[in-house]
Amino acid sequence: MNDLTDLFQSVAGRVKPPVCVALGPPWPVANLVEAVAAPGTVCYQMDLHQADRVRDCLAEVGSGAEVVAKPDLWDLGPTFETVVFPAAAYADRELKIDMVEQAYHVLKPGGVLVSLSGYERDNQFAKWHKKVFGKCGQTPASKAGMAFWSVRGEDQKRRRHEVAFHAKLPDGPPMEVISRPGTFSYGRFDNGSRAMVEVADVRPGESVLDLGCGNGAVGCLLGGKVGPAGSVTFVDSNLRAVALAELNAAANNTPNPKFVTATRLEGLARRSFDVIVANPPYYAKSEITQLFVQGSRELLRPGGRYYIVTKLPTAVVPMIFQTFGDCSVIENRGYSVVMAGVGGPPPLAGGMIPRVV
Ligand SMILES: C[S@@+](CC[C@H](N)C(=O)[O-])C[C@H]1O[C@@H](n2cnc3c(N)ncnc32)[C@H](O)[C@@H]1O
Question: What is the pTM of this model?
Answer without folding.
Answer: 0.94
